[in-house]
Predict the 3D structure of the following.
Amino acid sequence: MIELTLPTMTCGHCVKTVTRTVQQIDPAATVDIDLPTHRVSIGSERDAQAFRAALAEEGYEAQGSAAA
Ligand SMILES: [Cu+2]
């Protein structure tokens, strides 16, 4: 499980964008988002760095740790 904190993810629109971005990298990924804490849990075999890079490009710079 990949856990990311995205401080700039602040509304429902962001949630949609983040979900879409994650699933563009891995269509099979599970995405669990907790908006109040800006946390995203991604269930995927892909490397966390791929998601971090793609999300940063969309304006969602990840803070905190990524665990495999
Ligand atoms: Cu938003």
About this structure: The helical segments are 12-25, 48-57. The longest helix spans residues 12-25.
